[in-house]
Amino acid sequence: MSLEQAREWLGSATAVAVLTGAGISAESGVPVFRGAGGLWKDYRPEDLATPEAFARDPRLVWEWYNWRREAIRQAKPNAGHAALVRLEIQKPRFTLITQNVDGLHDMAGSGRILKLHGDIWRMRCTSCGSNWPDRRVPLPKLPPHCGCGGLARPGVVWFGEPLPEGMMREAEHATLEAQVLLVVGTSAQVYPAAGLIPLAKQAGARVIQVNLEPTPYSGIVDCALEGPAGEILPRLI
Ligand code: BJW
Ligand code: ZN
Predict the structure, then answer these.
(1) Are residues 131 and 125 in contact, defined by beta-carbon separation less than 8 angstroms?
(2) Which among 83, 114, 184, 194 is placed 20 to 30 Å from 150, CA to CA?
(3) Pairwise CA distance, residues 210 & 184, whole Å
(4) What average pLDDT does range 155-171 have in this prediction?
(5) Catalytic residue among 81, 105, 117, 173
(6) pTM exceeds 0.70, yes or no
């Protein structure tokens, strides 16, 4: 299916949901998780983004976050993020659902954002549960601690952990009412986020995917556009 057809679907829809992943920030210089440039010191995300990995070696996990915070701090939103801000302004009903923790959608000016996997600029205490913002790069001492003396962890969602209370329900609700689901820069391998794609299909929405390469859902989406999000989204919107 062509970009023109996808542009028409998107143009005539009044309710749109967008699901983004690390690929939308790749052109801003933020490393992705899987595939080319996605690995840090040969670790896979499944080796680091888990409560077990953190319990085993909090310093190692924090070194990974320090590295990513460094890359993210230097990053600016790109033309893909900006196009989604324009789309939000055009649509009466619009929901941006992101798996990204980098804050680039906020920086671009998107309004309400459902951050399924949390925020890399927040910390949470593993002892007292309090949470707070911390944008220092690099962190002065690893691993960081809370005022109560407890070990601090990044305010993100790791494998095996539940998503923020109620957020997935909101994402599902937006997906179910959308006429178009636009899926950008995700390998669609991590659940429950990836499950929004078949959910939209079941509900009768058109699904448009923008990615450098095919994903497990390329065969069921209505239109799979292959190329960089920073080039395709401005042409689509
Ligand atoms: C471009 C581009 C360009 C590049 N333009 N494109 C089956 C069903 C349901 C769940 C499970 C299941 N099987 C297993 C699970 C559990 C698990 C899971 O999904 N595992 C999979 C490995 C199978 N899920 C979970 O554990 C989740 N929690 C959960 O299910 O809780 C249940 C529960 C309930 C009650 C109590 C307890 C538990 C949590 C998942 C958390 C994921 N966390 C991470 C880390 C977040 C923090 C951080 O950032 O540090 O989230 S892992 C990592 O993967 C990160 C990402 O958000 C996520 C998705 O990655 P994404 O965004 O797709 O990036 P990539 O790198 O994979 O892909 C980039 C894509 O962009 C590629 O396709 C490129 O081609 C493309 N690209 N440049 C366009 N310029
Ligand atoms: Zn504490």
Answers:
(1) yes
(2) 114
(3) 5
(4) 98
(5) 117
(6) yes
